[in-house]
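Please fill in the sequence for the structure shown.

STRUCTURE ENCODING:
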């Protein structure tokens, strides 16, 4: 594609896990991709090299989504190097499972800073920076519907994202921009698998009627659909991609 008609996507938290698979998928769909990362510079650089070697356009941009100045710079650098943004995927997130009463002030602040304020910051920036006809995909979690003990603060941060999604979709009236959220169930990433016994992993895998853990590709496929012309009429929705778990 030429620079003029090639679409541009920002994927936050895209150096590894689900975010990296989404970045690969969007690149394969013809998007020029800005891979945002907070600390995993080596992995982000390696992903850029991989995508460029495959003939795609990709750049890596370090930015903390919890900081509004960083988010403004993320859009600035993407515009300068790739062009105006068409797609924003808010994949960056943190999860610490701990009973509510055991949360420190710092952990509460961090969870909301990245999961909720991070989404707020990118949405606010996208309001003036995204091309008309663009797509925004936020990340919630199927834990919002499960209400599992130990997930209270995380769920609260993601429930807020669902509300932001539904209202923002209405606030962008007249721009032909859709705003949706994906709410994955358990997905076999390092983040999920780390610190769990084989027995715990198998318990999660048996929970959905489809009797397996989600794979990063399962989630990337849903994001791919939501940013495609096929999903032009899907707006303000939360799509639970969890194999029927809830």
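FILLED IN BY: designer on duty
SEQUENCE:
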């Amino acid at each position: 594609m030429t620079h003029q008609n090639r679409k541009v996507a920002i994927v936050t938290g895209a150096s590894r896990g689900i975010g990296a698979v989404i970045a690969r998928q969007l690149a394969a769909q013809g998007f020029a991709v800005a891979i945002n990362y907070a600390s995993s510079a080596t992995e982000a650089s390696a992903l850029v090299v991989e995508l460029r070697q495959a003939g795609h356009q990709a750049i890596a941009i370090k930015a903390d989504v919890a900081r509004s100045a960083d988010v403004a710079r993320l859009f600035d650098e993407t515009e300068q190097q790739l062009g105006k943004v068409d797609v924003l995927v808010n994949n960056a997130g943190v999860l610490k499972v701990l009973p509510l009463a055991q949360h420190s002030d710092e952990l509460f602040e961090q969870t909301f800073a990245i999961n909720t304020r991070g989404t707020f910051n990118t949405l606010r920036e996208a309001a003036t920076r995204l091309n008309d006809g663009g797509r925004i995909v936020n990340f919630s979690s199927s834990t919002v519907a499960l209400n599992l003990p130990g997930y209270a603060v995380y769920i609260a941060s993601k429930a807020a994202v669902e509300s932001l999604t539904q209202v923002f979709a209405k606030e962008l009236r007249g721009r032909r921009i859709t705003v949706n959220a994906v709410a994955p169930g358990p997905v076999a990433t390092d983040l999920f698998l780390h610190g769990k016994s084989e027995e715990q992993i198998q318990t999660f895998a048996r929970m959905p009627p489809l009797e397996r853990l989600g794979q990063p590709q399962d989630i990337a496929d849903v994001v791919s659909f939501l940013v495609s012309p096929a999903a032009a009429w899907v707006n303000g929705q939360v799509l639970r991609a969890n194999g029927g778990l809830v």
